[in-house]
Each structure stands twice: as structure tokens, then as C-alpha cells.
């Protein structure tokens, strides 16, 4: 974009409610930042482009986006939004539009992959040889990373939509438009709101909602531990800001293990973690996705190998 000798990177954390954009020398050295309300794709992108137009030294861009995304490199639709409930974004070529308009190399991945990369390189799970990053907000999403890199699959993971064992006496039908009572249908912020007619942030710490929430999130953790045995499970997103919730999740996981996995409550404190970078895991992660940046940061990162749980 310019002949400036200073090589800056740009990051876009594309969310369903807001887009956060940053210009930085490195993920932890942000020089300028803005937050844009998410509207239709073209008008939102115009604001994103206007922001970066003020920073012509940006030479590479990372995009961490809500999904689902088409990340199949062999598909002509690579870099587009897939069947998102936000109908005007369906099929929108987010990566191509930003590449073309800003004329810089750009890379796109999911918001949860980006947040997981940030927690691996800079946050609570530094050097964890395998980790799962989960976000619990309006929806629930997750990503599995090995040595800080996303595990390639046929499509990206949809951990929010796993089936979960219903809590005893829980007759809430679930709110997932696809599956009803999948994890997202039972434990997302939307589910909490529909179940209790109250937004999660207004529920008192002693409300029974939290024991139920811990039960369902522990169900996810148990599935992950039994299938992937990750070194770290990072539980992020707005709902996890509830005081005491992560401790309740660890408690439920410990009881759910029933002695089978040989993990003590102390061990679980090292496996089930709160994000170290919240609320910036995704934004830092978007900067890490900028082409060229990830290798530079990886060289600097002091990775601490962990022993398997
Ligand atoms: Zn579902």
C-alpha cells in the first residue's frame, strides 16, 4: 500500500455484532484501533476500508471472522461466509473483497482459531502442544489447535452443535434452529436468555442457571477430554465472564470423570483455563493471522512444552 519503511500489520476481528479493526507493529503493540457496528456486508466493509485507508503503511492483513466460513482452498468459494443465520452475509466473499480493496496480502480464519492462536502464543496456554479454544456467547464455537496451528479438517469444527446429555429434570426444549437441544441450543447466551427470560449478565451468582450452565459446558469438556485429550481447554466468550462459572465447570468435570481419567481437581485447574487475553484474544489473533506475522511471532515465542495430562 505504501513505500513506508515501517512494516505494519492490520487485523480485523469480524463479529456478528461488531467488527474490531487494528493497526499494529506486532499483536501486542497496537497503534490504532476502531470498533464498527456490524450491518450489511457492503456498508460494514466500507467503514473497515475507510479505517485502513488512514494507515497506508499496513502491508499485510489478518481476518478472524464469525462463521461458518468456507476454508476449502480448492473451492472457488474459499474465503466466503457460508450458511450463516445473518442472511445478507451468506456467500459474501469477505477475504476477496478486503484483499482487492486494500491491495495487501490477507489471510482469513475463524474467530475461534485466531483466539486459540493468540492464547497459545501470548496468553494462558503458551506452548500447550494441543489446545481447544471455546467461545460461549450468542452461539458456541470451538477450534482445536496442535502446536498453535489449526487442525485441518474437511470443514471447520462445529463444537457448539454436539449433542449433550440432558440434565435431570431439565425440560427446556433448546433453541438451536437446526438441532433444538444441542449444546448451543441448551447453553449459549441465547439459550440462557430464553430459558430464564433474563440476560446472563443480570443473573445473580447464586441463580440455578449457573449450575445448569456448568453442567452442559462440563459435558463439552468431557467429550473433548475423552476424544482429543487436549493439554488445555480455554473457555472464553461473554458467558464465561460470570464469576465462579469456570470453577463450577471444573467441579462438574471432576465428578463427570468419575475417577476414570486420573485427573485431580488441581490437575483440572491447569487444563480448563480462562483466556489470558480476554477480551482481546480474537483481535490479537487476527493480527497473528496476517501473512508473515505468524512465523515472526512464533520465532520469538518461548514455548514451554507441557506434559500430557
Ligand atoms: Zn445445533
List keywords for this structure.
single chain, 309 residues, alpha/beta, 5-stranded mixed beta sheet, 10 helices, 10 strands, 33% helix, 20% strand, globular, binds zinc ion
What does this structure look like?
By secondary structure, the chain is of the alpha/beta class. It is built from ten helices and ten strands. The strands form two sheets. It has a five-stranded mixed β-sheet with strand order 3-2-1-4-5, with helices on both faces. A five-stranded mixed β-sheet has the order 8-7-6-9-10. A hairpin with a 2-residue loop joins strand 7 and strand 8 (149-150). Helix 1 (41-53) runs parallel beside helix 2, helix 3 packs across helix 9 (281-288) and helix 6 (208-227) crosses helix 7 (245-257). The longest helix has 20 residues, at 208-227. Bound molecules: zinc ion.
Amino acid at each position: 500500500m505504501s513505500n513506508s519503511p515501517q512494516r505494519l500489520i492490520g487485523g480485523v476481528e469480524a463479529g456478528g455484532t461488531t467488527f474490531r479493526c487494528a493497526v499494529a507493529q506486532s499483536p501486542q503493540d497496537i497503534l490504532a484501533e476502531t470498533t464498527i457496528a456490524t450491518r450489511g456486508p457492503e456498508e460494514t466493509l466500507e467503514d473497515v476500508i475507510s479505517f485502513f485507508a488512514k494507515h497506508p503503511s499496513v502491508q499485510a492483513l489478518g481476518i478472524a471472522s464469525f462463521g461458518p466460513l468456507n476454508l476449502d482452498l480448492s473451492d472457488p468459494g474459499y474465503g466466503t461466509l457460508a450458511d450463516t443465520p445473518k442472511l445478507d452475509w451468506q456467500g459474501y466473499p469477505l477475504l476477496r473483497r478486503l484483499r482487492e480493496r486494500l491491495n495487501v496480502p490477507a489471510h482469513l480464519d475463524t474467530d475461534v482459531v485466531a483466539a486459540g492462536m493468540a492464547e497459545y502464543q501470548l496468553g494462558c496456554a503458551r506452548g500447550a502442544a494441543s489446545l481447544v479454544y471455546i467461545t460461549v456467547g450468542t452461539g458456541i464455537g470451538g477450534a482445536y489447535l496442535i502446536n498453535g496451528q489449526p487442525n485441518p479438517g474437511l470443514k471447520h469444527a462445529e463444537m457448539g452443535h454436539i449433542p449433550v446429555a440432558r440434565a435431570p429434570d431439565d425440560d427446556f426444549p433448546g433453541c438451536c434452529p437446526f438441532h433444538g437441544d444441542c449444546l448451543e441450543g441448551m447453553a449459549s447466551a441465547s439459550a440462557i436468555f430464553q430459558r430464564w427470560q433474563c440476560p446472563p449478565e443480570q443473573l445473580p451468582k447464586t441463580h440455578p442457571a449457573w449450575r445448569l450452565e456448568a453442567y452442559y459446558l462440563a459435558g463439552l469438556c468431557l467429550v473433548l477430554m475423552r476424544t482429543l485429550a487436549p493439554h488445555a481447554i480455554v473457555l472464553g466468550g461473554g458467558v464465561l465472564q460470570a464469576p465462579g462459572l469456570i470453577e463450577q465447570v471444573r467441579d462438574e468435570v471432576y465428578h463427570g470423570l468419575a475417577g476414570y481419567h486420573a485427573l485431580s481437581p488441581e490437575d483440572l485447574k491447569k487444563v480448563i483455563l480462562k483466556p489470558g487475553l480476554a477480551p482481546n484474544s480474537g483481535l490479537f489473533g487476527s493480527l497473528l493471522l496476517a501473512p508473515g506475522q505468524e512465523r515472526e511471532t512464533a520465532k520469538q515465542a518461548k514455548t514451554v512444552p507441557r506434559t500430557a495430562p
